[in-house]
Amino acid sequence: MKKPPTLKKLQALFDVVKLEKQDDLLHIIQFKSNEIDVETFIKTSIKEKWGLFQISPHITSLEDTFVQLTNQ
């Protein structure tokens, strides 16, 4: 996103748990549920002029899963 919203703004609009900046244009947004209204999210991003140009699900690798399980 070119102009990402704050975590507080995302939490007010959607059930967002975490907003993580990967680089200037890539942000990972973690929602409370895997079932989000993507259409509403996209429409909101256009209305709010966030500069959204890509949306994709986060895919956890087997290695990431192993690390998460061993750290618990």
Question: Main attributes?
Answer:
elongated; two-stranded antiparallel ribbon; alpha+beta; 72 residues
What can you tell me about this protein's structure?
With 72 residues, the chain is of the alpha+beta class. It has one domain. 36% of the residues lie in helices and 15% in strands. The chain has 3 helices and 2 strands, in the order αββαα. It has a two-stranded antiparallel sheet with strand order 1-2. A hairpin with a 5-residue loop joins strand 1 and strand 2. The protein is elongated, with a radius of gyration of 14 Å.
Order of helices and strands: HEEHH
CA-atom Rg in angstroms: 14 Å
Distance between the first and last residues' Cα = 32 Å
Strand content: 15-25%
- The total tally of domains equals 1
Name the shape in a single word.
Answer: elongated
Strand order of the largest sheet: 1-2
Estimate the helix proportion, in percent: 25-40%
What is the quaternary state of this protein?
A: single chain
Structural class: alpha+beta
Give me the number of helical elements: 3
Q: Biggest sheet: strands, sense, closure? A: 2 strands, antiparallel
**What average pLDDT do the residues reach?**
90
Number of strands: 2
- Uncertain spans: none
What's a quick, concise take on this entry?
The chain is of the alpha+beta class and 72 residues long. The chain has helices at 7-13, 38-47, 62-70; strands at 16-21, 27-31. It has three helices and two strands, in the order αββαα.
